[in-house]
């Protein structure tokens, strides 16, 4: 029983630690490079170039 | 959409309780069963419930609504003219309150994207919360868009880990539903952008290449250009500069052919950054200049390019030119008071003003009290290294070695954090 509780506690700690590490990644990185938007494309008519 | 879910959605939207809706028609427990699809009610009961909700049951009208919805959904992905989108939205919203339509649920889910495009974040969140209650009745197609737009919401809030979790869930639904290639490519592109924000370089390359294959076949050259920009950023990060430049040039070429200023500006900005990273200030300045001169592009983009240009002039000790750009930057800053990054640009621009004019007291005060705490809070490692180094160098020059070591150490620790990402 004690082993079970100990392993459960350890498991919870590990999962918690993993989730914390995931969320600790930088949420905003203004490093001078700029990614395009996930929204707008364009209302301009398209030209076939290929 | 099942009639039970439809009735529940309409009732919740109108703020009616089950008791109010059921009164005189069916018992409350029976209504609950209808709403949760545990029983099939007779057409008479459905008709009475719909009448109380003020909704018509007309299948012919529903076909028209479906077509209109399809058009509006496409507009959310392809049209930049907000007025057109708003006009169609108002029309559909009115129709949906009067006629029972199978497209209602899809319409409600797409409202999240609509609010995001319109910049109405509170409304988007409210819509997500109200749909949460009925999300248990969503089918796979509903779920695909539900996860995708919840991801879009997280992206807008700069919560990229959360966004990635949502996009992954949407991706899992692709095999269960019948989606067009362009829908799949749009999700792949969105995932690529998110990976890029999270600095997962190899994944960006993988997803951009997948998306670009489809966009090329569909002649969607703006999205192709956006993928090339993502590839440019990724190859720059793994120091394959020639390949990065090739992708940026392709993106610019597509931007010029399609007369898309945003693409051209973004390419110049990123090419400027690349040349700055490899120490070619002359080329960097040339591209940054190209990125700030176009007034048609967004204020935020112009501010990024302007601050980068100031940094480059400062780096090359060309203070006169830096001050010229600072004047321009101040004017842009005045226009950007509502920008989310206003504070950041304000601090950066003023730090340079103080540094160039030898106003060291103001410089150290601003950097220590405002800029560094801001950068730490927003985990902006790149700028944190730059400004802590600047500060440390200043302390070193005036002989304050203890302070100097403190900030060199902070720069070093931040650098290690980036390397470990």
From TrEMBL, chain A:
Keyword Signal: yes
Extent of the signal sequence: 1-21
Protein origin, superkingdom: Bacteria
Swiss-Prot/TrEMBL keywords: Signal
Protein name as it appears in the record: Phosphatase
TrEMBL record, chain B:
Keyword tags: Repeat, TPR repeat
PROSITE patterns the UniProt entry points to: HTH_CROC1
Highest taxon of the lineage: Bacteria
CDD domains referenced in this protein's UniProt entry, alphabetically: HTH_XRE
InterPro entries: Cro/C1-type_HTH, Lambda_DNA-bd_dom_sf, TPR-like_helical_dom_sf, TPR_rpt, Ycf3/AcsC/BcsC/TPR_MFPF
Tagged with keyword Repeat: yes
Domain HTH cro/C1-type: 7-60
SUPFAM superfamilies given in the database record: lambda repressor-like DNA-binding domains (SSF47413), TPR-like (SSF48452)
Official protein name in the record: Helix-turn-helix domain-containing protein
Organism whose genome encodes this protein: Ornithinibacillus xuwenensis
């Amino acid at each position: 029983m004690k082993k079970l509780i100990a392993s459960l506690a350890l498991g919870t700690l590990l999962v918690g630690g993993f989730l914390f590490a995931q969320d600790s990644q930088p949420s905003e990185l203004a490093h001078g490079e700029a990614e395009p938007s996930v929204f707008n494309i364009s209302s301009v008519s398209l030209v076939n170039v290929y | 959409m099942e009639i039970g879910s439809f009735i529940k959605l309409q009732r919740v939207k109108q703020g009616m309780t089950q008791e109010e809706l059921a009164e005189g028609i069916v018992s409350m427990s029976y209504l609950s069963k209808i709403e949760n699809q545990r029983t099939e009610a007779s057409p008479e009961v459905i008709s009475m419930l719909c009448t109380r909700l003020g909704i018509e049951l007309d299948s012919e009208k529903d076909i028209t609504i479906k077509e209109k919805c399809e058009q509006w959904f496409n507009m959310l992905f392809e049209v930049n003219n907000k007025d057109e989108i708003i006009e169609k939205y108002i029309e559909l919203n009115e129709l949906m309150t009067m006629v029972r339509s199978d497209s209602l649920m899809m319409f409600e889910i797409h409202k999240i994207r609509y609010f995001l495009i319109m910049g109405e974040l509170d409304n988007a969140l409210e819509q997500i919360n109200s749909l949460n209650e009925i999300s248990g009745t969503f089918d796979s197609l509903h779920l695909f868009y539900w996860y995708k737009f919840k991801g879009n919401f997280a992206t807008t809030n700069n919560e990229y880990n959360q966004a990635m979790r949502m996009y992954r869930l949407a991706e899992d639904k692709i095999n269960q539903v019948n989606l067009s290639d362009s829908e799949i490519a749009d999700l792949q592109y969105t995932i690529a952008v998110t990976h890029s924000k999270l600095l997962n370089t190899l994944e960006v390359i993988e997803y951009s290449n997948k998306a670009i294959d489809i966009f090329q076949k569909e002649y969607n050259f703006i999205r192709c250009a956006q993928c090339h920009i993502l590839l440019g950023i990724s190859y720059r990060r793994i120091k394959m500069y020639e390949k990065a430049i090739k992708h940026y040039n392709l993106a610019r070429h597509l931007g010029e052919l399609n007369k898309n200023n945003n693409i051209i500006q973004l390419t110049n900005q990123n090419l400027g950054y690349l040349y700055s990273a490899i120490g070619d200030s002359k080329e960097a300045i040339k591209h940054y200049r190209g990125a700030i001169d176009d007034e048609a592009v967004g204020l935020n983009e112009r501010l990024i390019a302007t601050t980068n240009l100031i940094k480059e002039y400062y780096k090359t000790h060309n203070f006169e030119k830096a001050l010229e750009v600072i004047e321009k930057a101040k004017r842009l800053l005045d226009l950007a008071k509502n920008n989310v990054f206003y504070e950041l640009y304000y601090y950066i621009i003023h730090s340079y003003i103080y540094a160039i004019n030898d106003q060291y007291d103001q410089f150290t005060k601003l950097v220590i009290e405002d800029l560094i705490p801001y950068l730490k809070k927003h985990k902006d490692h790149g700028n944190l290294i730059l400004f802590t180094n600047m500060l440390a160098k200043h302390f070193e020059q005036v002989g304050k070695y203890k302070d100097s070591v403190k900030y060199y150490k902070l720069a070093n620790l931040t650098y290690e954090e980036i390397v470990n990402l």
